[in-house]
Every structure is written in C-alpha cells, then in structure tokens.
Amino acid sequence: ETGVTQSPTHLIKTRGQQVTLRCSSQSGHNTVSWYQQALGQGPQFIFQYYREEENGRGNFPPRFSGLQFPNYSSELNVNALELDDSALYLCASIPRGRDTEAFFGQGTRLTVV
Amino acid sequence: QQPVQSPQAVILREGEDAVINCSSSKALYSVHWYRQKHGEAPVFLMILLKGGEQKGHEKISASFNEKKQQSSLYLTASQLSYSGTYFCGTESNNAGNMLTFGGGTRLMVKP
Predict the structure, then answer these.
(1) Is B87 in contact with A43 (Cβ distance < 8 A)?
(2) Which residue, A18, A43, A57, A64, is CA-closest to A107?
(3) Cα–Cα distance between A47 and A31 in angstroms, integer?
C-alpha cells in the first residue's frame, strides 16, 4: 500500500452533471498530481498542485479544476461531464524535492452515462 | 507527444528474461518506470535521469540513452509477481514529476 487514499472508489454520473473526487496524500508530501487513465491506456497528466497552487497543467479543458488544502489533501472537480470523461482517475502524492517517486492511489473509476 | 512503448504485450515462462523499450520524439530529462497490476495503483520501479543517475529498486535494471531519447527496462529471471502492465513516463524538463506516459506493455509470466 502507498498510503494514498482516494474516494469514492466507483462513481456513476449522468452526462452534464458535476463530480468531485478526493485524494488524501501521504504525510509530508506537499505535491499532488492528477491523472486520467482510459481503459487500456496509459495515465494522462491533468494537473499538479504544489502548496495549494496549481503548478502545471496538461492538455485538459478548464472544466477540469482542482484544489489542494493546507493538509495537502486534494480534490479534482469536473463540470459538464461528457461520456469521454469515463475513466480511472489517479492521484499521485509526491514527496518534497525533485526526481522522486510518486505514490499513486488506487483511483476512482468514473462512469458517465 | 506520448512516448512509444514496445512490445505492446509479452508472455514469458518463469525464469525467462524480457526487455521493454520506451522511445520519445522529444529530448528527455528523465524517464520513470511504473508497474500496474489489474485493479491496483501504479507502483514505482525506477527513475533514470539525464546525466546517468538512477534511483530505484535494486532488483530492477534499466538504461537511458539520452542521445536517442530511449530507455529500456530489463526484467531478468522473471517471477510470477512480475506480471502486470509496465508504463514509462517521461519528462522533457525538470518540471517536477509531471509525466507523459506511454501506452504500456502488458507482461504475463506463466509457471
């Protein structure tokens, strides 16, 4: 186990709705990244938060947004859900410093119908 | 642009060796390797940095050819526990672990 927990584990939403996914980082990790993993594909980088500020963003539209809290836990919000948003959403907790391993949670499986 | 992994899938018998390749069209700062078992989180294997530094688990070996923008992961004397999907994640600059992952290589080790 990586000590990174995500909730909920599974979720079904209707197209057009909004969803919030949560990630609890490892203690002492001040950086969190979010990834989207479609079935049978590699994870795609959504964005990263460092000390409560967005630190970098991948090729995702603004309806994907996030928050990081003072305890370094994090949320991913997706508005106006589309069918193509169906995927496994992974958060990765990253220790202080560069060139380090990332500790992934088990993910939230989102299905949009 | 995402790196290209090869092969896409490989089946081994216990004790056999395998090589998984990762190739990028962009100059790379680092290559990160992860293994993901079905229904589980990706697990860190190794980081290879420009300049030759490596960080990772002792039983895993890998190479990074900076000039060719290629990395290879070497799995020797495979065990059943090696089964899973292997991903390489690349960074073109030292941005801080914002990875572009390849499509994965599915490895199955049979008894």
Answers:
(1) yes
(2) A43
(3) 11
CB within 8 Å: A44 and B94 = no
Q: Which two tokens stand for residue B20?
A: 């998984």
A49 touches chain B (CB under 8 A): no
With CB atoms and an 8 Å threshold, state whether B104 touches A98.
no
pLDDT profile of chain A (113 residues), mean per 10: 89 98 89 95 96 93 96 95 98 83 95 98
pLDDT at B58: 65
Q: How far is B33 from chain A (nearest CA, A)?
A: 9
Q: What is the mean pLDDT of residues B39-45?
A: 92
**How far apart, in whole angstroms, are the C-alpha atoms of residue B39 and residue B44?**
16
Which chain B residue has the Cα nearest residue A94? B97
Radius of gyration of chain B (CA): 13
Task: Please tell me the distance from the alpha carbon of residue B38 to that of residue A82, in angstroms, as a whole number.
Answer: 25
How far is the C-alpha of B26 from the C-alpha of B50, rounded, in Å?
Answer: 13
